[in-house]
Amino acid sequence: HTNCVLIGEDQLLLVDPGATSPSEQAKLKRLLDELLEMGVEFAAVLLTHSHRDHVGSVTLVRETYNVPVWAHPVTAERVTFTVNRHLEENEVIVIPGDPEFRVRCLHTPGHDPGHLCFHEETSGTLIGGDLVANPGTIVVSPHHEGDMTHYLQSLERIRDLEHELLVPAHGMALR
Fold first, then answer.
1. How far apart are CA 9 and CA 101, in angstroms?
2. Are 17 and 4 a contacting pair, CB within 8 Å?
3. How far apart are CA 50 and CA 46, in angstroms?
4. What is the pLDDT, as a whole number, of residue 144?
5. In this structure, how many other beta carbons lie within 10 angstroms of the beta carbon of residue 112?
6. Which is nearest to 72 in space by CA: 154, 170, 175, 173?
């Protein structure tokens, strides 16, 4: 499965709503409906990259909840739906809260040319997408535009970041 990560309190960013099976999409919709009943708003869907297991429920979320989709420009070129906003290297998305949430976009190519990680600076949480898995390995396939040199550079970059928690797209969070 692919982790769908929520960032925020009253306004939420949804990272990688990737469910592809009808039963998992129904579960996601049920959980999002419960959050709406609690009074939250969905600010945007953020995508780490364009792979099917990360974007499988984007259209469902967008159409059901009228939520814009934000992604790296390369990802926007690769998906079949409209990306409303391009996220650039080091751009910071601020979501209200107490304290506010500051999500820095980090371009981390290698697994995919448009791959982004999202560093929530207030809590020190890194949403790593397919840069890291726990447990498991990441495929860097030259047949699907993967690049091992870029991948290793991206790993070095996040290694040097100050973060308390790493949330991979697949598996459990790592301290």
1. 9
2. yes
3. 11
4. 78
5. 28
6. 154
Tens digits of residue pLDDT in 43-96: 999 999 999 999 999 999 999 999 999 999 999 999 999 999 999 999 999 999
Look at the pTM and tell me if it is higher than 0.85.
yes
Rounded to an integer, what distance in angstroms lies between the CA atom of residue 166 and that of residue 5?
Answer: 12
Q: What is the pLDDT of residues 93-151, one digit of tens each?
A: 999 999 999 999 999 999 999 999 999 999 999 999 999 999 988 999 887 789 999 99
Query: DSSP labels for 59-125?
Result: HHHHHHHT--EEE-HHHHHHSSS--SEE--TT-EEEE-SSSPEEEEEEE--SSSTT-EEEEETTTTE
Closest of 104, 16, 8, 100 to residue 52, by C-alpha: 16
3-state secondary structure of 172: coil
Residue for token pair 């949804």: 14
Token pair belonging to 132: 């890291």
Where do we find the tokens 């898995």? 133
